[in-house]
Prior knowledge:
By secondary structure, the protein is mostly helical. The chain contains 1 helix and no strands. The protein is rod-shaped, with a radius of gyration of 39 Å.
Amino acid sequence: MNFLEEHGGKFVGVLATFIATGILWMVRTVFTNQKQLELLEQKQDMQHDAAIKGLTAVSEDISEIKNNNSSAVEAQETMLRIMREIREQK
Length: 90
């Protein structure tokens, strides 16, 4: 009996085990990478949403400041008009 006949079955079994292990490793790696990509996308979406909310809040604050400034200008104009009327009465 030669070596190949004697150990051929073992060789095929070991080779099949290596191939199966390699395939399982590749599948786990692909699924793990896919899960990591999904988590990264979720994180980016959350950061994007937070940035949009922040920009919206800043925009609202700017609008409020503009409104307050226009009210202050109106009050100053009213005070100036009243002071002119008082000066004209003297």
